[in-house]
Amino acid sequence: MTVTTIPPRSGTAFRLAKGECLTVIDPQGEQVADLVVFNAQDIREAISSGRSLDYASKLYLTTGDLIYSNRSNVVLTIVEDTVGRHDFLLTPCSRDTFRIIYHDEHPHQGCFGNLEAALAPYGVASDAIPVAFNCFMNVVIAPATGALTVEAPLSRAGDYVKFCAEMDLIVGLTACSALQSNNYSFKPIEYRID
Amino acid sequence: MTVTTIPPRSGTAFRLAKGECLTVIDPQGEQVADLVVFNAQDIREAISSGRSLDYASKLYLTTGDLIYSNRSNVVLTIVEDTVGRHDFLLTPCSRDTFRIIYHDEHPHQGCFGNLEAALAPYGVASDAIPVAFNCFMNVVIAPATGALTVEAPLSRAGDYVKFCAEMDLIVGLTACSALQSNNYSFKPIEYRID
C-alpha cells in the first residue's frame, strides 16, 4: 500500500471515494495534521465541528465516533485511533495566527494558507475553509476558567488515526506549521488510502 | 431606548452598523439566544468560533473579549456581561438536532431553521450559517473525558450581554428552541440597539 509523505509545514488535497479509508500517520511523533473534508459533489457541504461535537456530546472524538457535515450528514467514521486525543475546536494556523498569537513580523502561511492553495483547484474558496479536525493536536482545557493550552501531542512515532469516507469527499490535509502545536519542531505527516 | 422581543422558539435578523451596540437580554432567566453575524458588505465573511477561541486562548468569552470573523477581523467586542458563561462550541439546534439527540418524530425547525428563514432575505444560504455564539448557554465539560453536558443557563431575569459592532454587520438572533439548553421551558429573548 502506498504511503504518501506531506513535507513539514505543507499541505495537500485529494479525492477520497465513499468506502475508501484514509489513515493519517505521525511518523516521528508529536506532529499535528489538520484535516478538512468537503462533499465532492457539492463543496458547500463541509466538515462541521459544531455539529460533530454536539451530536457526540463530547470534545474528544476517537474510534467509533462520527464526523458530521454542516448538513448533518456523516462524512467520516473514525475506525482506528492509537492516540485518542485530537482537537476539533481551533482554526487552522494561519498568517493571522502567527501575527496575533506569535507576533511574527513575517508570518508563515500556516495550515490555512497550505489548505487554501491545495483546495483552490477543487473550487474551495478560502472563506469556506472551516474549523479542521486537528489530528494529534493536544489542547488542554482548564475546567473552571475554560483557558486553552496547546500542549505537546500525545502521539509517538508510528501512531495513526484511520477515517472511512461515508460519501465521496475532497480532503485537505497538512503537516501543521505552528510551533506550539508540534512541541517546537516541524516534522512530516504520512497518509495512506485503502 | 426601544427593546424588541423575540418570541419563544423564534428568531430574527437585522442590520447593526459599525459603532452601534447590541444588548441581548434574558428577561425571565435561563433562556439561551444564538447569535451569528456576517459582514454586511460581504456576507462570505462571518463569525468564527475557531478563530475567536484560538486568539482568546479560552472557551468562555466575556467582557473585554473580541469575537473574530473567518478572515481574522474583529466583528464584535463584548463590552458588558452580567453572566460570564456562554457557549461557542455547538451548532444551533435544528431539525437534525431534535432527530439525532432528542429522537423527535416531528422535529421543530430550531434555531437553525429560524436563522435560515430570518437570514434568507439578506442572501445568507443555510450552508453558510456557522457555529453561533450561544448567549447564556451553559455547556459543562468533564476535563478527563471531554464529555459535554448542557446544563441550565446561569442567567437570571434581566441578565444581559452587550456587544459592540466593529464593522457593519448583518445579525441573526434567536430565542433558543432546545429543551435542555433552556432548563426545559421556552421563554422570549429581548434585544436593544444603541
From TrEMBL, chains A, B:
<dbReference type="Pfam" id="PF09347">
    <property type="entry name" value="DUF1989"/>
</dbReference>
<protein>
    <submittedName>
        <fullName>DUF1989 domain-containing protein</fullName>
    </submittedName>
</protein>
<dbReference type="InterPro" id="IPR018959">
    <property type="entry name" value="DUF1989"/>
</dbReference>
<feature type="domain" description="DUF1989">
    <location>
        <begin position="5"/>
        <end position="170"/>
    </location>
</feature>
